[in-house]
Design a protein that fits this description.
- By secondary structure, this protein is an alpha+beta fold.
- The chain has helices spanning about 5-15, 20-40, 85-90; strands spanning about 45, 50-55, 60, 70, 75-80.
- It contains three helices and five strands.
- Strands 1-2-5 form a three-stranded antiparallel beta sheet.
Length: about 90
């Protein structure tokens, strides 16, 4: 499912009188709130899962073309851990 399909699904769930623009704005607002929240710490959505900020350590990798070792810098990323309810619904 891509973002356009997700907007269509949100519009359908909210009802026939909801415009596609309103559904898009609602989805954008949720994604923005999650993005801002995860900068401060974990964002937990009960029944769905948790978005956690994670620091990745610097490490050695390998260039697949030349097979030479390459240092990969430390970075920050986000991990998602699905809730038990989401896992059981699959």
């Amino acid at each position: 499912m891509n973002k356009a399909q997700l907007i269509d699904a949100v519009q359908e769930i909210l009802g026939g009188d909801t415009s596609k623009r309103a559904a898009s704005e609602a989805l954008d607002a949720v994604l923005t709130a999650i993005t801002k929240g995860v900068k401060k710490g974990p964002v937990q959505l009960i029944g769905f899962g948790t978005f956690k900020p994670v620091d990745r350590n610097a490490r050695m990798g390998r260039n697949p073309k030349t097979k030479e070792p390459v240092e990969i810098k430390a970075s920050k990323t986000v991990r998602f851990v699905a809730s038990a309810a989401l896992k059981s619904s699959l």
